Amino acid sequence: MCAINMTFAKQSVMPLRKKNERLINDLESKKKSLRTNQTALKELKEQKDACDKDIKKSNEEIEFYQNEIKKSSAKVERCRSIYEGLSGERVRWSESVKKHEESNNKIVGDCILGAAFLTY
Asked: Where do runs of H (alpha helix) occur along the chain?
């Protein structure tokens, strides 16, 4: 009877031992795979953090340049306003230049007339 129990135990224990060894090997393989995946995940998180920093920096640059565009647009509008305000002056200055040119043409004659008057 003891031999039968031993044979029965061998027949039922041996497959369980083999299954246990296989499960332990699978567990070790899964742990190794988990460590590899955790390392890859850590690297991806670092890359994501670097990309987030780059995006934040880019957004700050975009905001800076948008503010610069607003400032420049305001300056352009002020320049246009000044230019339009001075366009009326252009007409007045042009007329003034014409009068001065006419005076310059007459100045020689006026000087001669004045000299003649003084000598008489």
From this structure: 2-119
